[in-house]
């Protein structure tokens, strides 16, 4: 049933009158409007018909033998309970006292007999419109409640006084307390880190927060919280969506511990192997058969590549855990960038690419950063740009200021990145094409590490397609003292 489609909604209408001709007229009028009709000739029959058919609306004569229309109205309203069943009474009685008595009994409208068909039809249509809206609203509400109750996430409704006014079954389980006991309690008793003030001013708008929740019984648990301010007319309330992430955090900790242990256990023997290989290649071991030198170089190159991957894993793991140690200092930005570009010239030459630095900043401009980590970001971006650029093309490093931040762009003329891959661009161990790792090498960790390092330095990294083709990676870092 389309929402607000009143004409397509057939209602069931109970028509009650002790005069047969009146029943026929009313029945014909209602049926012409596309609704179903149930007829009753007195109050007792009307009540029986109501209980059996549960009609949507009642047209009722006030003066009938036996149970009169006033009493029938009262009983129908009682039988309907919370459901709204419009009752329109018709009477030949004159005087306001009859109208007031009918309204006090629960009638929704009153018409003087003989009723003018056009007026009756107009009133009927208006009531039907409201009734259909209410029924559709009830259906939507029922569906919403069903979704809420069957949601895996906890849902809390909190009023402007920060008191819990409603919760679903999942929230009840998270809080380990029966629903009735939670209503009216301060939500901060369970979520002490919750800050409605910041949320109200947009600090957490559209963001998930990691908080600790303390149930009435048992230990605190880690939750992910989504917070929305809902406004209905003059009223405001908060909608809180809670998800238990304690198991996810436990698995993440185990994963980080595993990677850290594995990386440490690999790095020590790899360092020893590389040192031994370099000694064999040195003049101290001139007796080594010259035919072995190419094999030693291959072993050295692959061992170094493996050590680089292990170090990248360690960096990514530390950054994700917030355990990355930074050595911050103040440096001339232009000097740093020139140094980073110079360090990567050999890599650019390997791919026959022209690597150039373009600056739109003063030579005296300074940046507060960790030089090694900043260099790591730039090396990752420059090496990627060179690797994917066509021979004899240019890779640009462009430095400028924008909106009170340093903006460093690494631009290439490579194939660009497919739109379908963009959501995964900064994920670990991902490359736009599986063949890339075979053709160009690499672990798929460089961009993931660069994003973590940028975040640790208070900045961001993003991607956009370059005008005229290729890619641009944009690093934004705070100005010195920002």
TrEMBL record:
> Keywords for this entry?
Kinase, Membrane, Phosphoprotein, Transferase, Two-component regulatory system
> Which CDD domains does this entry report, sorted A to Z?
HisKA, PAS
Domain Response regulatory, by residue range, is: 12-128
Q: What is its EC number?
A: 2.7.13.3
Query: Which SUPFAM superfamilies does the record cross-reference, listed alphabetically?
Result: ATPase domain of HSP90 chaperone/DNA topoisomerase II/histidine kinase, CheY-like, Homodimeric domain of signal transducing histidine kinase, PYP-like sensor domain (PAS domain)
Q: What class of enzyme is it?
A: transferase
Look up and give the membrane topology term.
Multi-pass membrane protein
Localization, UniProt: Cell inner membrane
Answer yes or no on keyword Kinase.
yes
Reaction catalysed by this chain?
Answer: ATP + protein L-histidine = ADP + protein N-phospho-L-histidine
Q: Name one Pfam family in it.
A: HATPase_c
Q: Which GO terms describe its molecular function?
A: phosphorelay sensor kinase activity
For this protein, the record's InterPro entries field holds:
CheY-like_superfamily, HATPase_C_sf, HATPase_dom, His_kinase_dom, HisK_dim/P_dom, HisK_dim/P_sf, PAS, PAS-like_dom_sf
**GO-annotated cellular components:** plasma membrane
Q: Which residues carry this modification: 4-aspartylphosphate?
A: 61
Domain (Histidine kinase) ranges: 261-481
Record-annotated membrane-spanning stretches = none
Protein name per Swiss-Prot or TrEMBL:
histidine kinase
